[in-house]
User: Which sequence fits this backbone?
């Protein structure tokens, strides 16, 4: 979501006649787009701001946008008096105001809903993989999560707006569409005639656009994985056989305290249905270890579910207490060394499962999407339907195909190697 927000900010400043520079010392305006989902990311913001202040041009204006801006608000000016603006994740479209009056201190951390999507210019050329936000905010109240506070209640964009953005992306270069939302599969839009549109409707319509060859969406909440959406995995070959559906913990007790009201059985039942619809589907998860009160036995249950589902491409985090969340006030917070230890054990298991899965791909032919050359310029990086990186030798004369059938010849934990299948 932040990558997408940054693209839109760049497009907005382009429309004001500005161009991007890679060198902070050359910039007239410097914007740090921030994430507050874990404490570590928040802490990094102020050290990074200090670094920027020391190297930026004296009259360059700088500030923060995104969730840390909303979390810290006015206090950001106290911590860093040189800052010029602090704009929350739903008010960064107000940024041009600071260009008119660079000496003011611009603060706006309001929850303005979906306003920003309509007020900002579109990207002129869509990236090959284009993110399309369809929903913002979250109505689930996981007790550890700051998102409902920073991004506000869940709102779905209108079906017409989403399809207009998707068509625009397709017409200006997109080959893959990734629908985005904090709770993307909860997407629900009711039009003026009372007609309800769901994520499955967006997928079906997008699959009809010839330029779009691949579709995916992230991030999904388990209980919102409705049958109409599961059927899309059976009916729409353009929908990739890969789904991020975080379980967070394998312990029913921890899930209860996290306020994630699903049982392991119901979660596994959804995975069974998905596998019945698309036998080659692979699932990815986010995990939190060291949630308040997590016992050795709770953690063992997380390890157990990771092995059982054989998650690929997963993310695991140490629990970090966040302001405005219930879990931060819970008793039995877990010591840092135990969190660190559990994270290392889980990571090593997830890596092993990933390596095993990557090895099962050897000998298979996968249709992959080109991301461009690697650092050496001698290879091309492709992305498989399971989001693995696949490295292929660059053809001598041919232009690289944006989509290509690649036979996988080798694999390790981090990536695959392959060769083009010639017809
Ligand atoms: N501590 C650790 N991880 C968190 N996440 C969200 N809040 C926290 C927190 N307080 C993780 C969840 C979520 C991902 C985006 O970040 O796993 O799925
Ligand atoms: Fe946060 Fe996701 Fe839970 Fe919403 S569903 S509160 S975004 S972890």
Assistant:
């Amino acid at each position: 979501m932040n990558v997408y927000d940054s693209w839109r900010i760049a497009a907005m400043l382009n429309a004001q006649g500005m161009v991007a520079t890679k060198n902070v010392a050359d910039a007239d305006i410097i914007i740090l787009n921030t994430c507050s989902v874990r404490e570590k990311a928040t802490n990094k913001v102020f050290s990074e701001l200090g670094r920027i202040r020391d190297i930026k041009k004296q009259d360059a204006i700088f500030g923060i946008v995104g969730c840390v801006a909303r979390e810290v608000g006015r206090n950001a000016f106290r911590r860093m008096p040189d800052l010029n603006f602090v704009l929350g994740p739903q008010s960064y479209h107000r940024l041009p105001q600071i260009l008119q009056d660079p000496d003011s201190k611009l603060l706006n951390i309001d929850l303005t809903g979906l306003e920003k999507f309509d007020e900002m210019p579109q990207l002129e050329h869509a990236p090959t993989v284009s993110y399309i936000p369809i929903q913002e905010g979250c109505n689930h109240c996981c007790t550890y999560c700051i998102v409902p506070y920073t991004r506000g209640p869940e709102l779905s964009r209108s079906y017409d707006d989403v399809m207009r953005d998707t068509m625009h992306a397709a017409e200006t270069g997109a080959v893959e569409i990734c629908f985005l939302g904090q709770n993307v599969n909860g997407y629900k839009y009711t039009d003026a005639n009372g007609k309800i549109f769901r994520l499955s409707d967006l997928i079906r319509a997008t699959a009809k656009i010839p330029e779009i060859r691949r579709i995916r969406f992230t991030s999904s909440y388990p209980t919102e994985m409705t049958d109409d959406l599961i059927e899309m995995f059976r009916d729409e070959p353009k929908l990739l056989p890969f789904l991020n559906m975080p379980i967070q913990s394998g312990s029913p007790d921890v899930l209860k305290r996290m306020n994630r009201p699903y049982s392991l059985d119901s979660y596994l039942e959804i995975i069974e249905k998905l596998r019945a619809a698309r036998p080659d589907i692979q699932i990815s998860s986010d995990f939190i270890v060291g949630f308040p009160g997590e016992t050795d036995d709770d953690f063992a249950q997380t390890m157990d579910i990771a092995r059982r589902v054989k998650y690929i491409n997963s993310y695991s985090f140490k629990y970090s207490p966040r302001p405005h969340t219930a879990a931060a006030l819970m008793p039995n917070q877990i010591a840092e060394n135990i969190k660190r230890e559990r994270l290392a054990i889980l990571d090593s298991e997830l890596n092993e499962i990933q390596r095993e899965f990557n090895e099962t791909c050897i000998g298979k032919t996968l249709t992959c999407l080109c991301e461009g050359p690697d650092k050496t310029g001698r290879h091309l990086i492709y992305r498989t339907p399971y989001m693995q990186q696949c490295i292929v030798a660059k053809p001598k004369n041919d232009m690289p195909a944006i989509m290509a059938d690649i036979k996988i010849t080798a694999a390790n934990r981090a990536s695959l190697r392959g060769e083009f299948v010639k017809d």
Observations:
- The radius of gyration is 22 Å.
- The chain has three domains: 2-108, 115-360, 365-420.
